[in-house]
Amino acid sequence: MRKTLLFGALAAFAFGLVGVAWAQNSACNILNCREQGGSRWSVAGSLDVLSGGDLDIESGGALKLAGTTISSSAAELDDTTLQIVLVDVSTNATHFVVSHFAGSITDWYCVLEAAITTANNTLTLNVNGVQPTTGSTITVAFSGSAAGDVDSDLTVATNNTITAGQAISIGSSGNSTNTVREICTVVVDR
Question: Over the stretch 118-144, which tens digit does the pLDDT of each residue have?
């Protein structure tokens, strides 16, 4: 009887040690848990940041989507773009786009799809019918122009605020010749 009791006690102790070792080295057995060592959390359910809470990734940390690090700054993530196509930059005309969000226009870029001739064009930016104080004009030079030429103004300021549903327009002076499309991209900081 003593041998059976001793054998039973040893067996229970051995199974206990195996169980503890298994628990320490196994994957989590619930949807959301802290893994062994505490340096990693596994979330198989959902993670909700409640009202008033935040998710702060400190310097040296990383935000990843599907294992890929998101390297954009917060300011870059707030920027978005709207495009306006000038069907013929050589025609005196104004083209519009409606902003579906509020923000401030910070800069704009335009690219020619072919060469223009005869004279330079002046492109003018308006925000809800008002021309920004600075950064509202771009000169598209005809001399040496070619497809892919980019002109820009990175100093849009004052009168550059847009609300959702307002129009942004770009007009061309139409001084050049040749029927050429110009595609303009307006950067809005939301």
Answer: 999 999 999 999 999 889 999 999 999
The Cα–Cα gap between 74 and 65 comes to: 16
CATH superfamily ID and name for 78-189:
Galactose-binding domain-like (2.60.120.260)
* DSSP-based helix, strand, coil % in the chain, nearest 5: 15, 35, 50
pTM > 0.85: yes or no: no
Do residues 156 and 106 lie in contact, with contact meaning Cβ atoms separated by under 8 Å?
yes
Residue type at 47 in one-letter notation: L
Non-local (6+) Cβ contacts of 33 within 8 A are 41, 42
For residue 65, give the 3-state DSSP assignment. Answer: strand
Tokens for 163, please give them.
């609300």
pLDDT (tens digit, 9 = 90+) per residue, 34-48? Answer: 877 777 777 777 878
Sign of the torsion angle spanned by Cα atoms 127, 130, 134, 140: positive
- Which residues have a Cβ under 8 Å from the Cβ of 57 and sit 6 or more positions away? 63
Residues of the chain with pLDDT under 70: 1-29, 75
